[in-house]
Amino acid sequence: MPELFEAYDDLDDVGERLKAADPAQRRVAIIELGNSGDPAAVALLDQIVGDPDAGVRQQVALALGEFDGPDAAAALARLLVDPEQAVASAAAQSLAELKDPASADALYPLAAHSHAFVRMAALRALKELRRKDSLKVALDALRDPDASVRAQAVGVIGFLKLEEAVPALTAATSDPDAHVRRGAVSALSFSAMKPAADSIMQALSDRDWMVRETAAACLGSNCEGLSAA
Asked: Is the same domain home to 144 and 108?
């Protein structure tokens, strides 16, 4: 087996190149850190999330997507609120790749952020982490004025597959937004409770064809995976 990082310069050397005056050189060093596979690279990347160059910050967000865990999540959380949309979008993309449930703690405050994009991205990331204590955050987000945030909240709840969430999901099948209703129908398919089945049946008459199609699929099978759509 090749030694970790043997195809790249020593981490200390790469860390020095992160201080280069040329943003292009800093971006190259960041790419090397992302490709290194060395968890110690996360601390170096965290040190430059405030770089003055937006292109560098975007590269940091992408590089952090190669790592998992609360430290990477905390750095990405800072980049998610970056004033440059390209940086924030890259951070959202990387956050969605997280799998370590411990990463959720860095995301919970963002679910109440003033910007809908940040709230949506935080909930999207929480969905994959499947932490039971995400339920309260998601239930609160079902009251969000932004439909995209509510849709992600339904996804979080659906992935948790908790019977106690059935009443909230049932209510969400009457949401004004079709994407939210569709997600709620899909999420209800995990439950054997009668209210869940009744709501799915009622969705067969929804005014939106996608919701009706999802309801039919859920009644014909367990529609596993539709809630991720």
From this structure: no
Q: How far apart are CA 209 and CA 222, in angstroms?
A: 19
> Token pair for residue 77?
């959380």
CB 211 within 8 A of CB 203: yes
Contacts of 141 (CB under 8 A, 6+ apart): 111, 119, 123, 149, 150, 152, 153, 156
Measured between alpha carbons, how far is 62 from 126 in angstroms, rounded to an integer?
18
Does this model's pTM top 0.85? My answer is yes
Residue keyed to tokens 């079902």: 142
* Dihedral sign from CA coordinates of 135, 137, 143, 146: negative
For the chain, the domain total comes to 2
CA distance 153 to 183: 9
Closest CA to 178 of 144, 141, 207, 154: 207
pLDDT in tens, 37-63: 899 999 999 999 999 999 999 999 999
Q: What is the pLDDT of residues 103-136, one digit of tens each?
A: 999 999 999 999 999 999 999 999 999 999 999 9
Is there a single domain that holds both residue 167 and residue 84?
A: no
Angle between helices 194-202 and 178-188 (to 10 degrees): 140
Helix (H) or strand (E) holding 154: helix 147-160
Residue 208 lies in a domain: yes
Q: Which of 85, 119, 153 is the last residue of a domain?
A: 119
φ/ψ region of 5 (left if φ > 0, alpha if ψ in -120 to 50, else beta) reads left
Domain that holds residue 163: 132-229
